[in-house]
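Sharing a chain and its predicted structure for anyone who wants a worked example. Both blocks are below, sequence first, tokens second.
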Amino acid sequence: MARTHPAHVDAAPTQGAPGSPPTWWVWPAAWPVTAVFVLSNAATPLYVLWQRDIGFSKGTLTVIFAFYIVGLLGSLLVSGVLSDRVGRRPVLLPALALAMAACLIFATASTVAALVVARLFTGIAVGAVVSAGMAAVTDVAGPHRKRLAALLASCAMVFGAGLGPFLAGVLSETLPAPTVTVFLVEAALLATAFLTVLRMPLRRPTAPAPGARAWIRVPGVPRGDGLRLVLGIAVFGPGITATSFVLSLGPSLLGGLLHTTDRALAGAMAFGMFLAATGVQFAVRRLRRPTILLLGAVSTTAAMAALVTAVHTSSVPPLIAAAVLAGMGQGAGQLGGLSLLNSSVPPQRLAEANAALNVGGYVPAGALPVAAGYLSDAIGLTAGATIFGAVLAALATTGGLIVLAGRRRIR
């Protein structure tokens, strides 16, 4: 496939090379990714309130969480290809509007069904952002700043994912009507992201080649980039599954270990996890991509060892260590995977490639925590978390071995 570049620009640049956006735009271009990911996990500390008011089990809680994954995966089947063909803006603006609708539903939710719908809408919005939004950051950064674009897009995702539960935890403990206040604040953040996308200097896409593949399909990468995708998924998948487990069942684990339902504490643990995911990316950004991926695999394996230790000793420090290490595993795996794709995939396939990476990551992130939640209901939280930890540690170790085997075939 010829790797041509788009020829038209929606908004005229004000500086830099002819036809390229101004350098400073690469930073605000990442804001819509952050704003939507704030929503993605903002509900985490609030589930204890909904469980108290509505009444549902840990298994139901993980199902609510899984509907987010269902929406996200369904969105990824469409949004990547759609973004590459019609442009980033026509995908991002409806996604942000849907995210604001999710805020309204969360703020007024009084049934499990309402929570399911809100999570579904959130997942659809996130699917659009991880494909079109991250590709937009790369588009704005230009061909000479691809490493910076991958770093900013990846950090925007994990920082937003951590900021959401932290803000929700603090606001819900300090202000009245917590489930309303939290989502009003998030709706305001999304409104600023909407305005940012309207102003963003994005290029128009090139027309699809004659005989182009279907619009709705399992996303993939161009011929020759398959190994890069496999290596990214092999590490990113276990990493994001580990953080998904902490998000969905972390408050339950805190309740069992500390006998507390403090929402600020649950939010702080999630924030620390994603702060580690952000920090590790800046720390390793100059390393070779296979090395970054190997660090991700090692971190996820260590996280599972700490998780098993925490549930068997009823000790909080190992649980916090598990959250931090899980964040590092996701952060390194995500940065390594995105960097591999950014370095090779042409702009007209980049959103689809980002979608493919996230499909590979979110499938286990949706399935395994749900299984662990129901298993914990059946045999107890300690046994369920132990089995989950062992399975995920095996997957992370396998991912590391796959990277070792393929590292000489990529740059």
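Comments welcome. The longest strand covers residues 8-9.
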